[in-house]
Prior knowledge:
The structure holds two protein chains of two kinds. Chain A is mainly alpha-helical. Chain A is about 70% helix and about 5% strand. Chain A has helices at about 10-30, 40-70, 100-125, 130-150, 155-170, 185-215, 220-235, 245-265, 275, 285-290, 295-305, 305-320, 325-345, 350-370, 375-410, 415, 420-430, 445-450, 450-465, 470-485, 490-515, 520-525, 530-545, 555-565, 575-580, 605-625, 645-655, 660-735, 740-765, and strands spanning about 75-85, 90-100, 235-240, 245, 585-590, 590-595. The longest helix of chain A has about 80 residues, at about 660-735. Chain A is elongated. Chain B is about 75% helix and about 0% strand. Chain B has helices at about 5-25, 30-55, 60-90. Chain B has three helices and no strands. Classes of the chains: A mainly alpha, B mainly alpha.
Amino acid sequence: xxxxxxxxxxxxxxxxxxxxxxxxxxxxxxxxxxxxxxxxxxxxxxxxxxxxxxxxxxxxxxxxxxxxxxxxxxxxxxxxxxxxxxxxxxxxxxxxxxxxxxxxxxxxxxxxxxxxxxxxxxxxxxxxxxxxxxxxxxxxxxxxxxxxxxxxxxxxxxxxxxxxxxxxxxxxxxxxxxxxxxxxxxxxxxxxxxxxxxxxxxxxxxxxxxxxxxxxxxxxxxxxxxxxxxxxxxxxxxxxxxxxxxxxxxxxxxxxxxxxxxxxxxxxxxxxxxxxxxxxxxxxxxxxxxxxxxxxxxxxxxxxxxxxxxxxxxxxxxxxxxxxxxxxxxxxxxxxxxxxxxxxxxxxxxxxxxxxxxxxxxxxxxxxxxxxxxxxxxxxxxxxxxxxxxxxxxxxxxxxxxxxxxxxxxxxxxxxxxxxxxxxxxxxxxxxxxxxxxxxxxxxxxxxxxxxxxxxxxxxxxxxxxxxxxxxxxxxxxxxxxxxxxxxxxxxxxxxxxxxxxxxxxxxxxxxxxxxxxxxxxxxxxxxxxxxxxxxxxxxxxxxxxxxxxxxxxxxxxxxxxxxxxxxxxxxxxxxxxxxxxxxxxxxxxxxxxxxxxxxxxxxxxxxxxxxxxxxxxxxxxxxxxxxxxxxxxxxxxxxxxxxxxxxxxxxxxxxxxxxxxxxxxxxxxxxxxxxxxxxxxxxxxxxxxxxxxxxxxxxxxxxxxxxxxxxxxxxxxxxxxxxxxxxxxxxxxxxxxxxxxxxxxxxxxxxxxxxxxxxxxxxx
Amino acid sequence: xxxxxxxxxxxxxxxxxxxxxxxxxxxxxxxxxxxxxxxxxxxxxxxxxxxxxxxxxxxxxxxxxxxxxxxxxxxxxxxxxxxxxxxxxxxxxxxxxxxxxx
Lengths: 765, 102
């Protein structure tokens, strides 16, 4: 009996939520053409059903967690149904869920943080005309994300991968009808940018899957990994495009392609450009999809494929393959962490800063998994999900508060009620008066007095992100830095610099948003958000504080010892927990051997102390020195720019032409290629040739055949007319015998009798 | 004087039947044809009684009564038809009675 048999419920609950909000949502949330606001009483239904479904999914994930403990952490597969089955090619992809410690960790994060964000969104999206649509998309996202993390094969993972990409597109462009002053559909454009950039990564993943199936004959994780190890030990060679390559070479390509896929989804160099734009979506979306869950699927993909990366690491160390993809992964991650950290200095949009910060933290995780520190990467993934979701949601609360402050002054109360209606007006106004952006940190300041709860949780999130002891971010970031210090000095230096940047821009943000004097009347009249928004913030803040306990270094070491002495003992620290899903290899005399895992990280006092010192120093530097008294007005120039040497250098980075490169060269080239493909391939070939010549001509030919030959000649000619002709012909002949002369008939009779008599006589004789 | 055997009777019957058959096939007058049919029937009757006598079996004699009954009925119907036809066509030439010609 499969103890994980209830796992499908994990997917069924969000699916119910999608169906509810998609089919019935509009009945509860009826946009009232008169009031612009929707029917607030019905909103509760739509939002709470979605949230309860998310919570139910989380409950299932918790159930799976305990089932795993009860089952001694043994991996389990829950087959749902056969999916693709081609017996001749021995190709069989089932639709099955894999329950192991790695997937359950992701399920808990996705469903848990997802539930909190759903509840927050009930408050945040209050009054939006697309309320039900929003929650349908959110549940759809949960559904696909849970498919992604629960898949037991690459193809099913890819279904989830594409599905979350779709939901990301739908939610970034949630307010797709909004236009900027120039009349450009900014939100819809941001959604398209995200989708197009992700295509590049997705294409790489498809190619990688084809290569895997070609060489290993399967796409299921278990058999891919076991046959990869087996073929590697046998030294099997493959011929691909006329080249003879070892399995190590194939895997080096596959893992590099996975890196490109992860770079797309997890916003790494050079594909990170979509994530900052993705902030065009509603803030809960930024928190859930573009900070906590979807963007971590690249890290999950690499951690899941750890066996393949470890094999490549082994062959790369041997020197037989030049493409050392794990090292490449580590450097891409570290470079992204630093670059995005620097760019974050220069942003004034509160959400853009957090977006670049997310890119930077994802770089930390990618660097960790690239160094083989999968547990450290997953640890940072979990804690980052806590504090970055917290930061985004708090930022949402700030924006919400400032917007309310803005409505409160200068604009009549009618507009506050008729939020959507004022839309058009607001654009007119934008030309006339000053354009007001509630996300611009330059109009904030002093909000800690107006929004105390938000201030405190934001501070906790910022300190956790900066890596201040003893919050969650300190432990997870330090573990990555400790591994980097041990394995790769280059990565260590890059990551340490990135960590310094992190603390600096968070110090700047706290100062600009919450301290000093309000720089705009809107900030003066900001109001604290309702409890439905602040309660989730407090939950996440608590998690951001204690999240580090998941994998405390000394605790881990002690527990590891205890678990070795008592193999049955509960050993829940993330290190021991994930050990059951992540393999580690080493090439020894007798081939490849399975190591238990990288040694539990001991707290390295030097590394930890150094990074803490840097973090605090940098935070303080930003808070007291650079942004100490200034800026006091919204128009004032960012003081960082006036710092000699570093300031201009940082601003030079900010205009680093990568984004321009994409928008000016890659995207237009893509558009041209797409246009060409649309015309040449789609229009000329498909429509003209395939449709006209192949499909239409064959169809017309067949139709002619049936009408002219089959119908006219066959049915009409032979069958119908033939019968008539035959009858007539026979009748013509037979009627000649009807002479009308009785004597003829009598003669016939006579001859008949003679014939009969002759017959009987002769036969008798 | 030679003895009259069964063969004489049968030969007479065959001659009468042949004359009747030729009369049916060869003549046009309906009455003549009827008479020829009667001749054929009676030729058969003669064969019946002759063989019944020869074989000492009364079945043949009984059968003759049936034949005579049928012949009487046939003549009654047939003559009625001829009268009816004569009334419409004023002729009993059977070559003129050909309206069922194909």
